[in-house]
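[Structure tokenization] protein backbone as discrete codes
[Encoding] learned vocabulary of local backbone shapes
[Protein] chain in single-letter code, fold in tokens
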Amino acid sequence: MKRRDVIKSAGILAATGLITSKSNIANAAITEAKSKSKLALRVAHITDVHIRPDLGAPEKFKKCLEEIKKQKIDFFLNGGDSIFDASYDDVKKERVTELWNLWDDCIKGINGYEFHSCIGNHDTWWAAPDKSDAMYGKDYVVKRLGIPNRYYSFNKAGWHFIIVDGNNPSITLDDEQFNWLKDELEKLPADQPVLIMSHYPILGVTPFWEGGMHSDYKKLKALFYQHRDKVKVCLSGHNHLLDTASYNGTQYFCNGAMSGYWWGKGDDKSAGEGYYEETPPGYAILELYQDGSVINKYTPHSY
């Protein structure tokens, strides 16, 4: 699946404004949420860690996790691409094992926190000698991430969380998964706030030039409209770029990558050291309120 697959006809979204400060970047459209409802959860969203043994990545990632722990969060959401890359044709088993062992070592520091992950396109080893190899495909990633399935759901503090797997042809939900999602939303009570996390943006601003968005976005936004009293947030990464979009009452947050420019210094398009284009490496803290409102605060971290 190509990173820069062109996503056409995405003009149905409207971008909200962003405000910046020294420490974070927050969604401006909902900054008054604190005065309107009681806070239900504080959740850390990390994505596109791309852990690797070089460039000081393990030390930087561990340091950032310690920083997040100080912010009184309830749990972590991991948006995928946890390891640097298992997806290319020339990647050997030893390399995949090394990367996952490194991932395990890094997240030992957050033992005691719930950690809910989705699968990224670079997490899966397709170059195994044959499909019977225990490390082949998504099942191995599910095992290494400690998640119940490639897609799943759970409840916390009045919110319902749905984790989906867009790693299918043309970045879509397969029929089995879409039908599950449809049933999942239908069985929830009215006004139950829902957060949906995919590795890929379902709707977004940056896919206009970067690609990488769900190609089934029309099907999904139609489903979300049917359940607009429930679907409040769609969360993603993948593009290593920060954007916010809003449509029919659903907020779409694509947060920047923990690894920024894959832990490197950047290139001629980088606005600063470690940036991918104009987005610095970092993580987000989401404040989720009982009435379904949300604030997404993106915090750059220093290499």
